[in-house]
Amino acid sequence: MVISRRNFLRRVGGGAALGAVAPSLGGFAHADGCPLSGSRHPGGPIFLDRNENADGPSERVMGAMRDRLARAHLFPRSDPDALGDQLALLHAVRPDQVVLGCGSSDILRMAAAAFLGPGTSLILSAPSFDAIVQYARGAGADVSAVPLTRQHAHDLESMSHRTNAATRLVYLCNPNNPTGSLTPRGDLEAFIRRLPAATHVVVDEAYHHYVGGSSTYASFIDHPLDDRRLIVTRTFSKIHGLAGLRIGYAIAAPQTARRLLSHRVEDGVNVVAAAAALAALDDPEYLRLSADRNTDRREEFFNQANARMLRAIDSHTNFVMLNAGRPAGGVVEHFKHNNILLPPPFVPMRTHVRVSLGTPPDMAEFWRVWDLLPRHGMS
Fold first, then answer.
1. How confident is the model at residue 267, as a pLDDT?
2. What is the Cα gyration radius of the chain?
3. Is 309 left (phi over 0), alpha (psi -120 to 50) or beta?
4. Full-prediction pTM beyond 0.85?
5. Closest CA to 365 of 38, 126, 32
6. What domains are defined for the chain?
7. Residues forming a β-bridge with 64
């Protein structure tokens, strides 16, 4: 049943001396000369806690949003359909295989509503993006969280052992949030093929565009697996810089897409978000520029971490999981006190903090505040 809008809610390293590394933080700028938007509101904190694109959307997208504001008094009509058609064309699928949502988290809600209920179970990794957990529990399902491997990949063998007749949904975030790590495509394929016929799989590709040239990674949208149980999600919240508009989508087999859509929110995709997403798809140069900027900033982050003899998990995303060498809760509070927001600690990684990659000025301030941490308690 359609839900009424009225009822919905790297490595370790040494490196150059710290003083030689730090000045390079200011060396990055937009290749197109546009001013950096930054990760803070005027007078507010620096937001390094939710993996946004600190530079925001392209000017083309901003123009599309301004144009569509004139239709804000009207309910959505053709814009979401046009977006779905464009996504189908982009990914070489049928339009009835595209499911739009109010952010990709909305797709996770639909999946939980469609496939879970009392007497069923969800399997996912820990730590991973856990929005689907609340939806699963809300549906009355059990949740089984399997620790990542020592290489921070999904422990697919252990997940297979947890699978039984009650397992109706498996969630795989790849690259994984919060670790930024990859699970090889071949391993994922073999795992999916072993699952019971009644078990559907959500592969979350929110950070797909940041991966770059990894020999072990291949998108399940760009290189599809012929399996009707597969649901692959993407979002416009990350590289496209539209987190505040809440727009995401899934690609699935037609019959699976229909089951998801039966739990959609009526008019859940607004006209401004749909127009912005369409403009983002029509601006591949900005997507490439954003990916290149992120690669440079990620490398600089590792340079700064190495100069301080800090360990970090190799990242394929726009954030880095840094081992603080001390309880993460205290580090998060220290940064909050200094006007920088980081996410709460992730169980069971009690000494790690996840740091979203902001603009060069944001990151210069991050490392300045890091250097204010007392050395006592470091390991």
1. 92
2. 21
3. left
4. yes
5. 38
6. 18-57+285-370 (3.90.1150.10), 60-281 (3.40.640.10)
7. none
